[in-house]
Fold each of these.
Amino acid sequence: MHTPSHWGRREIVDVLVTDPPCQGPERDVSEFRTRPSLSVEPMDEAEDDGSNPMRDLVDVGDIDGLLDLVSLDDIARAWNRYSDTPQPKSYDHPDWWAIDLFWDPGVKGYTALRRELIVKLLEHAAPETIGAVAAGPLEDFLSDDEDDLRWIEAEAARNPRMREALTRVWIATDVTDATLARLDAAAGELLPRPRPPSEWLPELIAYKEAEHRLTEVAGNRAAYDRITDPSDEQKSAAAAYDAALKALLDRGEG
């Protein structure tokens, strides 16, 4: 399972990788961690007995069952509500299921659903929350896939919130130059570019090396969390990753 602050941590890593002044808006990391909820009105998603049917369905990967119970608007409202929750965040938050949903293999493999959900997230997000959508579901969706690129271009042409979100994604190292140029055009301005590795902080270099090692032996941090009986090698790689990440975050917040 991903940690509740997964995207907030990613914000700091991205800021440290990007050359200031970046070719795009700077990210204020605190924006995604300390604001009160602005996107939607509070709503108790849990039952009186403490159960949470949405969480239970996501936990077992029953996406069809979830969609029978809630609408895409409901999912988007819950996602934004959780994202707007001040730190410390918790897996026990009644809306955590909406965050966890986006890492479900059934959703990741369902392109049409992911597209609709991204549009709904942006529709229901407060202006201050658009960056969180960009840093999470939108960044995870973007790739060199031609059909997805054409969809992004068409959606950005008619949706100003999509254009704004694109200006806040940090995707330059994950796509080809040709794709990045198309995303620049769709956004209407240049997306952020990374600084060269020769200018990276020592903590960032150590983090990237630890991340690569963990990916080799366990997939990534989220995949490791789902391993019920990790090997000693996997445990060691995860511990090294966590230590490197902490050192990087301490440097970024210092």
Amino acid sequence: MNTKKLTVCKLEVENCWKDLARVPKEHRVDGSGKRIRRAKICKVIIGDKHKLLSIHGCQKKDAVILMDSITRDDLGVHEGNSYEVELQPVGWLGYLRWASVAADPAYRIPAQISLISLLLGVIGFILGVFGAISSLKTH
């Protein structure tokens, strides 16, 4: 577990409601100390709360994390206070989960449609296999 003490700051308005946080490059590292690239989806853990966020860079060099008010409320943190923050990059299931529950409909709606399409495709495949099996048994 590799945590960084970061001060919570307000995120600029144009980035609000996008399920993202901004962390300077020097402080964007995972549990093993490896640098996290921009726009990587990470599980951000502060205390006993966590949230999936897209982690981006920022111009600041200080040990800060910029978040919108909804994210600050979800994580139970306050602007201007410093907290131990852990960033855990997630795999493709984490990306899918992040997109399917994102606050921004531009991310959420396509992800939900793709999940429905995948489910319908799996159901169609299963029905096709059962149809083929029953057809083989009757011949």
